[in-house]
Amino acid sequence: MSLEAIKTISEAEEAVRRRKAEAQQEAKRAIADAQAAADAAVEAAKAKAADELQGLAKTADDKSRADALELAGNTENKKAAMRVHAESRLDAAARFITERIVNS
Question: How many helices and strands (H and E) does the chain possess?
């Protein structure tokens, strides 16, 4: 082999090593970029889920509050009806007791 051929082979081998190193660096950059994009997508999904959860919680709280107010109103109506009924029975009971005392 001539010195020129050895020099050409050495240069070719060095060029291959450089291209291989460049390809490895490019692959590392691509992996880092993909990881960064994936991390950003995960963070965006977390933020979106947190916003949706907050909205659902607010909706649930509002519905619970409305249901509680409706239940309280219904309870007040029932309480008033029971009070009227009890008062009318109280009058009847008082008359009954008075009659028993007077008639005895």
Answer: 1, 0
